[in-house]
Specification:
5 helices, mainly alpha, 10k-s Protein, Hypothetical Protein A, Chain A, 131 residues, single chain
Length: 131
């Protein structure tokens, strides 16, 4: 299971590449199931997966410097507090997914991104991704 989540995190990190077109078969429903089970190891893997998706998104949105020297700055999409823990992110993702039943059929990394975006709004920006 750890290998599965590590692989999923690596896929999420490569999502900006033109060659990374394969997504995990895990959907929002399975993600919630994995993140709320009784197996502490699986829950830790779920937390690691959410951390990986968050890290990949944060890395991607910070690729271009604010001075515009390499093109326009990408919009702020995730504005997580610097002191947030992986467990807090997992709890936020699960709570968001449970309150958005339509997300259950979406790809897991998309659920994570939308949940973190909606839960931790960026202040003073029009950041966002097309739905």
């Amino acid at each position: 299971m750890k290998l599965l989540f590590a692989s999923l995190a690596m896929l999420a990190a490569c999502a900006g590449s033109a060659h990374a077109e394969r997504f995990s078969p895990i959907d929002g429903s399975k993600l919630v199931s994995l993140c709320t089970g009784r197996d502490k190891g699986v829950m830790a893997d779920c937390t690691a997966y959410i951390n990986g998706v968050s890290d990949a998104a944060s890395f991607y949105q910070n690729l271009r410097p604010a001075d515009g020297s390499k093109g326009g700055k990408l919009p702020a999409y995730l504005c997580l507090p610097t002191n947030i823990t992986g467990v807090q992110m997992r709890e936020a993702v699960v709570a968001w997914a449970k309150s958005h039943p339509d997300s259950q059929r979406l790809q897991a990394s998309g659920v994570v991104l939308r949940a973190l975006h909606d839960t931790f709004k960026c202040q003073g920006t029009e950041g966002g991704l097309a739905s």
